[in-house]
Amino acid sequence: MTDLTSLTIAEARDRLAAKDFTALELTDAYLAAIDGANGALNAYVATTPDQARRMASASDERRASGTVGALEGIPLGVKDLFATDGVHTQAGSHILDGFKPRYESTVTANLWADGAVMLGKLNMDEFAMGSSNETSYYGPVVNPWRARGSNVDLVPGGSSGGSAAAVAAHLCAGATATDTGGSIRQPAAFTGTVGIKPTYGRCSRWGIAAFASSLDQAGPIARDVRDAAILLKSMASVDAKDTTSVDRPVPDYEAALGGSVKGMTIGIPAEYRMDGMPREIETLWQQGIAWLKDAGAEIKPISLPHTKYALPAYYIVAPAEASSNLARYDGVKYGLRVPGKDIVEMYENTRAEGFGAEVKRRVMIGTYVLSAGYYDAYYLRAQKVRTLIKRDFETVFGDGVDAILTPATPSAAFGIGDQDMAADPVKMYLNDIFTVTVNMAGLPGIAVPAGLDGQGLPLGLQLIGKPFDEETLFRTAHVIEQAAGRFEPDKWWG
Amino acid sequence: MSVDTATVKRVAKLARIRVSDDEAAHLEGELNAILGFVEQLSQVDIEGVEPMTSVTEMAMKKRQDAVTDGGKAADITANAPNSEDNFFLVPKVVE
């Protein structure tokens, strides 16, 4: 029998339907794979084998009785940011020690309602703040990819590093993730997987630990474009519990695949050609343009003049919102408490010990830019710049552009403990330079693997779409995937 | 704009994070690097531009003003580091 963990969601769905194997057998195959690999990769911070087997058996019973959901019997991993009833939920942080919520996030509840099986919780940068998964209280995740002939450990990107690594290493069939500035798309690009951040409002944020509420969106990381489409269909919903959830029916994204891009207009923004960008990234971008042109799309040079201001504006807006959202972690309601001589000292001690360095930096920046006398100079200005960034996109879409093609990241995966980035937080922030604009404008963006660099590491392209036009992104990404092929790491772990 | 050590300590106090003198000195450098980076926003002409308040154009959803949830005190206090009879316990705040 073939290794069941090598199947995509679509393949497993068909084979389960044909009764080639059971959901329990599929789940056991994944649990064994996790046991063998997690010591080396550190992708899971908690596994739930008993619950997984119970859910798988229940799925097999449903199938026997003729009730089959869209994800019936499919084993998934869940980013530690999503609340899962009675299960480890700590957002990769020390301050949520021992937190097991008594409720389920809307996104994960949607997945279980469609028949999926939970394997466990996936590692991530603390409170989703990071681009390398190195800020996790649970230690870094190791990228399943290594440079050719090298045994140096690389980062999987972040903040959804555990999700991306687990999908790339076949430790789950697919995973939930979240994206505030690039946290789905950058790790997907670093691991040769597909990740989509849908339009703001498409997935409910209820039950997802909040980082920057006006930017946070959930989305899937998957092995291919089809699996990403299947997962997003289940994750997305209209939810009364999230006031920013949009009242629009969820389309059948999978049905968009295989459609032609003939006659579509693909915008190529001049501002994404950065100084010092590696030649390989430029080559990959040109290759993507050529593929879409060959498929009949029209290529149009465009300008998004405020692109360079997106990242600095983000580093005001996101920390400001984070400083407010993270005020709730005070040692009273859940998680860690470090005593002090009075209540204020208890708060200060708890937050000093419970938060890691990156989270503290961002909470401090956020507190500063919102403090008396600085609000107009920083926060208000950043929100005005955000209006201009959004307007740039509206202008090009208004001029007939259907989707925008850019590189996903400015480089391939880098080493764990990179000295340059450790010394300068801004260097790490630059990882999100191509992805952050999309969050600032609330648009959908997908990262799709497009090739390998000279060292054999995966590189991705990004497609940016109009609000709620995820279908165009899936269709176009599928064309790129068909041309580029799929990329899987050579197994060196477990 | 940049911050000095005293400002770092004031901000840490506002954020309720204990910061030692060593940490404050370190944070001063890091925060100034970030503030230096965001400084480029001052080049943007924002005259007459409205600040973004909602990334998607939508009316704020309203629901009926009615009790739709509740009776979950035990669930809510279940994860508290210290609780009694469904109350959170904290150090004395009023003498």
Care to describe what's here?
Chain B: It is an enzyme of class 6 (ligase). Chain B: It holds the Pfam family GatC. Chain B: It comes from Oceaniradius stylonematis. Chain B: This is Aspartyl/glutamyl-tRNA(Asn/Gln) amidotransferase subunit C. The complex is a heterodimer of chains A (494) and B (95). Chain A contains 16 helices and eleven strands. With 494 residues, chain A is α/β, with parallel strands linked by helices. Chain A has a single domain, classed as Amidase signature (AS) domain (Amidase signature (AS) enzymes, Alpha-Beta Complex), CATH 3.90.1300.10. In chain A, strands 1-3-2-4-6-5-10-11-9-7-8 form an eleven-stranded mixed beta sheet, sandwiched between helices. In chain A, helix 4 (106-113) links the parallel strand 2 and strand 3 (117-122). A two-stranded antiparallel sheet of chain B has the order 1-2. The longest helix of chain B is centred in the N-terminal third of the chain and has 18 residues, at 21-38. The interface between A and B is large, with 76 and 52 residues.
Order of helices and strands of chain A: HHEHEHEHEHEEHEHEHHHHEHHHEEH
Determine the fraction of residues in helical runs of chain B and give it as a percent range. 25-40%
CATH topology of chain A: Amidase signature (AS) enzymes
> Average pLDDT of chain A, to the nearest integer?
97
Q: Can you list the strand order of the major beta sheet of chain B? A: 1-2
CATH architecture term of chain A: Alpha-Beta Complex
CATH class of chain A: Alpha Beta
Largest protein-protein interface: A-B, 76 and 52 residues
Please write the CATH class name of the domain at 5-42 in chain B: Mainly Alpha
Provide the domain count of chain A.
Answer: 1
Key features of this structure:
heterodimer; A: 494 residues; alpha/beta; Amidase signature (AS) enzymes; globular; B: 95 residues; Histone, subunit A; 4% strand; asparaginyl-tRNA synthase (glutamine-hydrolyzing) activity (chain B)
